[in-house]
Amino acid sequence: MKRQPLRLAILEATRILEDAGVASPRTDAELLAAHVLGVERGRLPLIPLVDPPVIDALGQLVAQRAKRVPLQHLTGWAALGDITVGVGLGVFIPRPETELLLEWGLRLLKGREYPVVVDLCTGSGALALAVAHARRDAVVYAVDVDPNALAWARHNADARAAEGDTPIRLYSGDVGDSTIFAELDGLVDLVLCNPPYVPPGGELPPEVIDYDPAQAVFAPEAGLAVIRQAVATAARLLKPGGGMAIEHDDSHGAAAPALVTSRKVLTEVQDHRDLAGRPRFVTARRA
Ligand SMILES: C[S@@+](CC[C@H](N)C(=O)[O-])C[C@H]1O[C@@H](n2cnc3c(N)ncnc32)[C@H](O)[C@@H]1O
Asked: What is the percent of the chain where pLDDT is above 70?
């Protein structure tokens, strides 16, 4: 078989993904092509022709993506901040929505030396590892209740440490446990948390329903149960002047700040929007 134009293969892949209802067909087609070729997406225009095995491999991945297997399960990674983490079955895929929460946290750490940071509901470890990468002097603790998520977090933490990042301290535990990280009471500079927050029964795309663990997505009390626990834990752990940021559902723009405000020690309560302009995370400082 002859070499073929990559541009046409990507166009065909885009059409297949569009027909399958994939939200960003062109982007996904390009990212899958880049994955097959082992190059950055931005370098695709520099590759005019590709060999038939490349077209075959791309076709197989596109067929799986058309069945709504998440893009990140096909490539094996997801990005947050300046790092990538391994993801797959059994762990939540970090989302772009969480970038602004991470940025807020890193801004809060500016000017603080050797800050203590806690990532509640760490999943793949993405938030904790992104902080540890950005701030080599930070002491970063992370916790999750799900052993499958923790296995991914351990794998990712080992990979980041091998790259030279300061190792994080990974724990198995429940944010609802009122003694969790008791040794850090009043000592923490920053608490970050992207908990499960989707109200049960909400309609979600197949990539979420079939591949993200339900425990990572849904929470009782109309999605607020784990947020409530995270707020209580943050209020206890933070040192005076320390800050917390908790992600929430776009329907929680009033309810999540209200939960934070109900804790008298938390001040400067502010809700923030995501890149799409929807209410997405609440922040506060320990008085
Ligand atoms: C939305 S995922 C977030 C993962 C990661 N922080 C991120 O942004 O990609 C929520 C995580 O919280 C964990 N989780 C759910 N309930 C929990 C609880 N009560 N205590 C600790 N972790 C919990 C789930 O196992 C899941 O890994």
From this structure: 100
Write down the architecture of domain 4-67 according to CATH. Orthogonal Bundle (1.10)
* Residue 1 pLDDT > 80: no
Distance 195 CA to ligand 1 centre (A): 5
Q: DSSP for 90-153?
A: TSPPP-GGGHHHHHHHHHHHTT-SS-EEEEES-TTTHHHHHHHHH-TT-EEEEEES-HHHHHHH
Q: What is the pLDDT of residues 166-178, one digit of tens each?
A: 999 999 999 999 9
Which atom of ligand 1 is the closest one to the Cα of 119? 6
Residue at 180: amino acid letter: I
Find how far residue 125's CA is from the centre of its chain.
Answer: 8
The residue whose CA is least distant from atom 13 of ligand 1 is 121
How many CB atoms are closer than 10 A to CB 203? Answer: 7
The domain locations on the chain are 4-67, 81-286
Q: How many angstroms does the Cα of residue 90 sit away from the middle of ligand 1?
A: 12
Closest Cα to atom 17 of ligand 1: 145
pLDDT of residue 202: 80
Q: How far is the CA of 2 from the centre of ligand 1 (A)?
A: 48
What CATH superfamily is the domain 81-286? Vaccinia Virus protein VP39 (3.40.50.150)
Could you tell me if 78 and 135 are in contact, meaning their C-beta atoms sit under 8 angstroms apart?
no
pLDDT tens per residue across span 229-268? 999 999 999 999 999 999 999 999 999 999 999 999 999 9
Pocket test for ligand 1, best of 92, 207, 231 (most atoms within 8 A of CB): 92
